[in-house]
Amino acid sequence: MTRFSQTARLWAFILLAALAPAGLSAAPFAAYVMDARTGQPIYKQNADTKLHPASLTKMMTLYMAFTAIERGQVRLDSRFPISSNAAAEPPSKLGLRAGQSIELRYLIRAAAIKSANDAATAIGEGLAGSEPAFAQQMTAMARALGMRNTQFRNANGLTQDGHYSTAHDMTILGRRLFYDFPQYYNLFSRREADAGIAKVSSTNKRFLDNYPGADGIKTGYTRAAGFNLTASAQRGRKRLVATVFGGTSTAQRNQVMAQLLDAGFSRVPSRAREVRPEPPQLLAQKVVRRAKVEPTPAATQPKTLVLAASEPPTRAQRASTAAVASAANPRDPLADAVRQAQAAPLSASALRLTSSARPSLRPAARGGAVEQAIASAVETIAPAAQSASLAAPVLAASSRPLPAPRSRAGQASTASVAQAGTDSADAIAAAVAEANTGSLSLLASPAPKPRSDTVILAAMGEGDISNPEALEIVSRPGGSGRNWGVSLGLYRSQVEANKLLLRTALQDGTVLGGAQRHVADTKRGFEANFVNLTRADAQLACERLQARAQTCTVTGP
After folding, report:
1. Which of 104, 362, 422, 545 minimizes the number of CB atoms within 10 Å of its CB?
2. Is the previous residue joined to 465 through a cis bond, with omega within 30 degrees of 0?
3. Per-residue pLDDT tens for 93-148?
């Protein structure tokens, strides 16, 4: 028997298994299987039929929470107040009481692992102010992710008029959670966890334990929806994401899912060109006071997120703004390169997520082009700009113009040096733009406002100072409290330390975009530092770096 005939028989068996109990269930059956590496469909049945998603809804609730965390809107230890509406949600629930407050990390665990309805509602109310407002934001995010047949009315997935989705759309969302938030994806594979006021157990434990390679992600059930499941599994180089709607029981749903995945793994090739999902076309803008960020788990309040459509600036407006900035401030090729790579215009219909003035680039694997460009740029310009800040506003902060470059004996003229800096900046801009096209981060919003108490020391010739490699940016703390920093450790060479600082700043611009890079020459080696931070920002930056397995230490005055 040929492989084709075997596969055909397997698909036929799956179809019969799905349809056989249809008379016993009021919920229609639907299924969709996708190659997670490419986003291409492998199998679909009623895949775009609008059905009740049940608790698969919580995948979007969690996606919104992860987005808010990564953008610095809230922290895992931010405390969310519990309303009477959230406390009154029916099971499954964590057991929250009206009037109490609980850390966001515990709400996320309860929603992801136990599928707690009260926890999901509390997350939505905490992020948007009310559950209806949060549902509107969820729907707008769904559109930005390419989920065209989804509309949300609540944060937990309980049956409600106008609340619907499809097997296709939920598979898209499952894939986005895997690619967009790999640092949080492991939540969906946990069998149990501490949710603050109780230990919670996974609703998906049976499938995770019984299907080889399964590592998530979410179950759902209501009487109207039936037994739903979005699952992901990996075998060797192959990874699939699939969704089943309308199962008649947990066992039958899991059996159909296993058959779908088995058939899918038999069809997809071992090697495939990975096509990462495009970042959602959203921008951030602050609308209410930020959550207080303290070094201890003190009570902090989350910030409301609002989605709104807005027109991008016209080409004439951008040109005018650029001309004014260019005339008023000296040019930094490295900062210009980063701004150029991140300033690609959006379409007029693009959705924008309003958030704070400091965007957070989500941690994500960067392409080889960025690494090569960074290495080349560091070797070219590190001796003259090792401590220059990544963010252009740091240079613009000083009202004093930089001294004119002085000629070097036996080296290129001033014009040649300027051209070399421009070429390096162009290379970085091209690499960053290419990486951002396939990256998982949200588009960046304007950088932090510049500080006026920054003094920039610079030299262009070997005769200017005795040690040209000791150039640095010195910031006077004054009374601002920005005298904290983050140390990334000791390295054998100045170039190696500077390259790490540059790569880290490109990957996480939320806090580090406003920091200054400084390489200290010590007896033990070259120490890579980000300086000119507040204590809270330094601790936040170090927490994010540690989440990416980057060793760091907070340094103080």
Report:
1. 422
2. no
3. 999 999 999 999 999 999 999 999 999 999 999 999 999 999 999 999 999 999 99
Query: What contacts 233, CB < 8 A, 6 or more positions away?
Result: 211, 212, 213, 214, 215, 239, 240, 261, 265
Residues 6+ apart with CB under 8 A from 57: 120, 152, 154, 155, 156, 157, 163, 165, 220
- Distance, CA of 553 to CA of 425 (rounded, Å): 30
Q: Which positions are annotated as active-site residues?
A: 55, 58, 115
Phi-psi label, residue 163: left if phi above 0, alpha if psi -120 to 50, beta otherwise: beta
Among 77-81, 365-369, 498-502, the least confident range: 365-369
By three-state DSSP, how is residue 140 classified?
Answer: helix
**Residue 36 in contact with residue 154, Cβ under 8 Å?**
no
The secondary structure of the chain in percent helix, strand, coil, rounded to multiples of 5, reads 40, 15, 40
Res. 282 pLDDT band, cuts 50 70 90: low
Distance CA 472, CA 454 (A): 12
Whole-number Å distance between alpha carbons of 237 and 486: 37
Q: How far apart are CA 529 and CA 544, in angstroms?
A: 15
Q: Residue 471: left (phi > 0), alpha (psi -120 to 50), or beta? A: beta
d(CA 356, CA 286): 4
Q: pTM for the complete prediction?
A: 0.52
C-alpha to C-alpha distance for 530 and 533, rounded to whole angstroms: 8
Write out the H or E segment, with its range, that includes residue 327. Answer: helix 315-328
Q: Is 16 exposed, middle or buried (0-12, 13-18, 19+ CB in 10 A)?
A: exposed
The predicted-structure confidence for 219-275, as pLDDT tens digits, reads as follows 999 999 999 999 999 999 999 999 999 999 999 999 999 999 999 999 999 999 999
User: Which pLDDT tens digit goes with each residue over 503-514?
Assistant: 888 777 666 767
Dihedral of alpha carbons 495, 500, 501, 503, sign: positive
- 254 phi and psi angles, rounded to 5 deg: -65, -35
Q: What is the DSSP letter of 21?
A: G
For the chain, how many residues are written?
Answer: 557
Name, in order, each residue with C-beta under 8 angstroms of 502's C-beta and a sequence gap of 6 or more: 374, 377, 378, 390, 517
C-alpha span between 502 and 347 (Å, rounded): 30
CB within 8 Å of 149: residues ≥ 6 apart: 48, 50, 164, 165, 166, 168, 169
